[in-house]
Amino acid sequence: MASDAPQRIVQGALEALRTKGFQGASARTIAALAGVNPGLIFYYFPSLDELLLAALRQTSEERLERHRPAAEAVRTPAELVALLRHIYEEDSASGQVRIVSEMVAGSVARPALGREVMALMEPWVTLAEQAVARVLKESGLPIAMLATPRELALAGVTFYLGANLLTHMGEATEAIDSLLVSAERAAGLLERFGAG
User: Fold this and answer.
1) Counting runs of H as helices and runs of E as strands, what totals does the chain give?
2) Which residue in 71, 123, 134, 192 is a FRET match for 61, CA 20 to 30 A apart?
3) What 3-state DSSP class applies to 89?
4) What whole-number distance in Å separates Cα of residue 97 and Cα of residue 63?
5) CB-CB contact of 17 with 103 (8 Å)
6) pTM for this structure?
7) Distances (CA, A) of 195 to 86, 108, 113
């Protein structure tokens, strides 16, 4: 039992963020969800923030590896937007949207935590930047004259984070879904324009 305690604690932290939010993700709540004594949390993790970051890091890395092959396979703007839509829909269904939203919201008043949360977003920005650069090169679209691949990747990650927060704050899920469908259609039109 002790050997799997750190992983159970991390899973408890993710469940606490998903169901109770950042404010409700206390050591006591996480311990109850993990089925461990609250003191065990601080045996494995130096602080509650470190635990929450470890939980976000784990889920982020797992998702990044799961989506990397698809991101490396995109070749057109429509495929890129379709992938963004797929990731958003999957994250909404799994509760990942809430986890990320809670960590972003919780870090607003804690600059050190905020820097760590943003550092965990950087691999996503890099993956998106590589995909955008490849799509622009292969499609021949002149968008690169307006923004660099990194700027476009940051725009995509910013949209994802903003969509997460809007979804978490109210009934924006349908509006975000509709916006992503429209963006996918627009990307298809852009491809046809670029090919013409």
Assistant:
1) 9, 0
2) 134
3) helix
4) 12
5) yes
6) 0.86
7) 25, 44, 45
d(CA 159, CA 1): 41
Q: Please tell me the CATH code under which domain 1-45 is placed.
A: 1.10.10
Integer Cα distance of 91 and 46 in angstroms: 29
Return averaged pLDDT per consecutive 10 residues of the chain, 196 residues in all.
85 97 96 95 96 97 96 91 89 89 89 93 94 87 79 86 73 74 76 58
Q: CATH fold of 59-195, please?
A: Tetracycline Repressor; domain 2 (1.10.357)
Instruction: Enumerate the domain spans of the chain.
Output: 1-45, 59-195
Alpha-carbon span 94 to 142, nearest angstrom = 37
Asked whether 146 and 137 are in contact (CB, 8 A), the reply is: no
Torsion of CA 48, 49, 51, 53, to 10 degrees: 170
